[in-house]
Amino acid sequence: MNARWKRISCDEYEEHLALMGDAKRVYSGLTDLDGEFGTPIIETVWCRADAPDEPLLKGVRHPSVRAEGDVAPWPDRLPCEHYFIDDVRTQVHTNGDE
Question: With CB atoms counted within 10 Å of each terminal CB, which end of the chain scores lower, N or C?
Fold first, then answer.
């Protein structure tokens, strides 16, 4: 698939998740709360149940670094990020020769 991720707002992300309803599935996920492999991150990529090989949405959170055993809620260290797949196959490209 020739595609790229297009950044969208939190509201757009929530709207897409709601539209997918029970038909959404996790395509992939990464949870590294302790920053074992870099900075702490939570990344979830969603797909539709009827198209399990086609990711559609991606949500990224940047949780705060916590002391061992600390379970108190802390604000994320950076704002969340949300993306929608932008499939360039569906875009019309013209060069003036219509």
Answer: C
Burial readout 24-45 (b: 16 or more C-beta within 10 A, e: otherwise): beebeeeeeeeeeeeebbbeeb
Q: State how far the Cα of 74 lies from the Cα of 21, in Å rounded to an integer.
A: 29
**Is 61 part of any domain?**
yes
Task: Collect contacts of 11-19 with beta carbons under 8 A, ≥24 apart.
Answer: 12/82, 12/84, 13/57, 13/59, 13/82, 13/84, 16/56, 16/57, 16/84, 17/46, 17/57
Token output for 25 = 């599935």
Query: In the predicted model, what is the mean pLDDT of residues 75-92?
Result: 80
35: containing domain: 3-66+76-86
Number of domains in the chain: 1
- Predicted structure pTM score: 0.79
How many Å apart are CA 15 and CA 84, to the nearest integer? 11
Please give the structure tokens belonging to residue 54: 């086609």
DSSP 21: G
